[in-house]
Each structure stands twice: as C-alpha cells, then as structure tokens.
Amino acid sequence: MSEHEPTHSTAADVARRMDTTKPHSARFWNYFVGGKDNYEADREVGDKIKEIFPGLVDVAVTSRHFLSRAITCLAAEHGVRQFLDIGTGLPTADNTHEVAQRVAPDARIVYVDNDPLVLVHARTLLSSTPEGATDYLDADLYDPDAVLRAAAGTLDLTQPVALVLLNVLGHVADHAEARSLVNRLMAGLPSGSYLVIGDSTATSEGMIAASETYNASGAVPYYVRPVDELAAFFDGLDVLEPGIVRITRWRPGPDGASGAAPDVDAYGGVGRKP
C-alpha cells in the first residue's frame, strides 16, 4: 500500500502499476455487472466463482442499487451535499456523483481509489454539474489522514460529509484495523456526517467458498465478515432505519430490481455521526 500523499497520476504512472496477469477486485466486479473493463484473469476466476456460487453476481448488481438508494436518501431527505467515496471501483451507471447531483446539482463529490485501471477511467468520474464539483484522488484507505487532507481541497470538512465505503473494507484482513481506519476517517468529519457501508458477508457456505476461491487466485485477498462485525463499524453512530440489513432490504424502491432480488449475502446500513 502506498504511503505517499494522494496524487493525480499520469498515464505512465498508471501503466507501470497495472498487472493484468492477476485478478483485481475492481475488474472482477466489473465483469460481474456486465462491464467490459476486465481481463482474462478476472474473467477466469469470475467464471469459476459463478459455478461455485452464482449468487455473487446478485451481490454485485444489488450493491449498485443499494448505493443509489443510500445516496438519494442522504441528498433528498437529509440535505447532504458532500460525499467522500473511498474504493470507488470502475465507473458504471449511476455513480455517486450522478445520483447525488441528480437530486442536488450543487453536490460535491471526491472519489478515492488506488487501482491503476480505475485511474484510467477517472475522467468519467470527473464530470459535474456547473453548480457542483467532483474530484478524483489516487490515494489509499490505509492513510486516512492523507485522504482527508487531500479531500479538503474540494470538500468543506467543517460541514457534513457522507463517507461511502462500498465493498472495500474486506481488503483489510484484521477487523480491529478496519474499524480503526473507519473511526479515523469519521473522526475527521464533523457532527451531522454520515457513514454508508455495504459489503459481502459470511452468511452462507457459498459466499465463504467464493471468497476462498477468489483469495486463492493470486488477487489481493478479500475477506467476508459476519454481520455483527460489519455492524460494529457503526458503533457510536445513530443508525438510520431499517438498520443494518441485507442490502436488498435497505429501503427497497419501486425500481423492481431491488424489491425482487434474492436475499443476497451482503449487508449494509447508513449511520449519522451525533
């Protein structure tokens, strides 16, 4: 993991860092949601996991629905105008800035990721309404202080911010360390800020087997956690209704996709900092 300050990387920097011979979570996830920004190594492990546990495809798709509903809720019902999205992943439909600025054109969004392929597509994430703003940082979850310092170039950290961590905390193997990282990030945000987390959970033998297969592929490991460990990230926060639930059951909307989705092995929630 990089210990450098967040940067805006050059194309040469990105090319040097990209390794297409091993699967990567952003590209692997992109394959599962029907994207084209993936390589043979990502598709191979993806196909293997589909045979073991096809439900992971549902997790990938419904995670995007959950993100959209959570961002819409915060912007429309709670007046949030600033979003810090760490572990952005590859652009798809309804990225955080698109959802937020559809509700509130003056919303400001900072994306954070350190995957080289995501950096290649960062320009897609930098579109914005004239009233709002977006920025992209090549930065690391493991350095919360540096992330917050850089984000302050676009966001006003004296005003509420929604911190979004979607399918990223599983990269941190140790639960205590993951909690520490989340706590340090939230400590740098003012009262009235929000935490949005959605992640795969160790709630079925199939999901656990899928995680083990992925981790054996040579990719950077991703660990699924029990629900109580995911819920612990919200300790000290006021959790919005309906609580920490399966992502398909978090305020399902009229889109049909979320309401009809199976009970996926992924939980999420939204909490407010008092």
Automatic annotation (TrEMBL):
Q: Gene3D superfamilies, from UniProt?
A: Vaccinia Virus protein VP39
Q: Which InterPro entries match?
A: SAM-dependent_MTases_sf, SAM_dep_MeTrfase_SAV2177_type
Recite the UniProt keywords alphabetically. Answer: Methyltransferase, Transferase
MF (Gene Ontology): methyltransferase activity
Tell me the segments the record calls region Disordered.
Answer: 251-274
Q: Which GO terms describe its biological process?
A: methylation
What is the designated name of this protein?
Answer: SAM-dependent methyltransferase
